[in-house]
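Bug report (template v2)

What were you trying to do?
Predict the complex of my protein with threonylcarbamoyladenylate.

What happened?
Run completed; filing so the output is reviewed.

Input:
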Amino acid sequence: MASPAPIVPCNDRNISIAAQIIRDGGLIGFGTETVYGLGADATNGEAVARIFAAKGRPSFNPLISHVPNVDAVAALANIPTIARDIADKYWPGPLTLVFRKASNCPISDLTTAGLNTVAVRIPGRDAARDLLDACAVPVAAPSANASGAISPTRAEHVSASLPGPADGGPKLILDMGPSDVGLESTVLDVTTSPPALLRPGGITIEDIEALVGPIDIAGTDDIAPRSPGMMSRHYAPTTPLRMNATSRNDGEVLLGFGPTSLHVEMTLSESGDLIEASAHLFEMLHHLDAMDATGIAVMPIPDTGLGLAINDRLRRAATM
Ligand code: TXA
Ligand code: MG
């Protein structure tokens, strides 16, 4: 069996090694006050695709981008007035805010799952912010566990749950001791008025309402079943989409995958590489959607590995 990811102490030397891995497009495990995260450069689509591959997650959901301070948030997002008091009081800490993307936001389309909003968090742990400082890029990080497994609160949980470096897992795990919250951050959407709670967590509804008045909790993942309001947070093209296309009909644009003699408008990956295809998916759908075609036809994608997540997303778009 291949070796699990090495667990290393969180000192200056290992932080700079970890930061270099992130900047090179690799994955690392690191501690936060909520749970351990599986981090990648949020501006690098292929790096983010490796997160989904390592977790074995059969769908793409938007990820949180982690940054060390409010200046770094302002480089990504327009911070509305209503969010300022909340940010002042609860950052750094177990709170994620969903903002409208700034016009020059460098976050990759895969990180935000094609949405025009971006979820950002400044973690509470000093060591986590030191790491983010050293990375000098926003770090996309879901919980560092295999899809469907329990969220990790210790470095050992991460190495036990995820594949090792030789199998697409993190190159190392920075041991920052046990997480003290043990529950993912509260996610609050501040693009709407009133703000909407998207995921309950460490910071409570009462904590937030004390600052901004009543908030909307209707679409919350854990309070209501998947409502249309929740689905609308997923990006899908408005042009009709057809999967498993082996030819192009009149008026359609064809999105390729793998080598082909057909005329393709764009191709997810010429060599048939699923990581490259994942990194391109949302960006190319946006582009093709803007072309005024009667339809978007997508060539077959294998239903294995990241292909599962790509096909899941295409299927949702095809049935819109
Ligand atoms: O505590 C945490 O938040 C941990 C640690 C590692 O920081 N991270 C974490 O990340 O739980 P993640 O990526 O698994 O959480 C993503 C949550 C999901 O509920 C997702 O739907 C929501 O944030 N989210 C992310 N981007 C969004 C967006 N643009 N619009 C709406 N919801 C978004
Ligand atoms: Mg999780």
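What did the reviewer find?
Residues 187 and 218 are 13 Å apart (CA to CA). The two ends are 43 Å apart (CA to CA).
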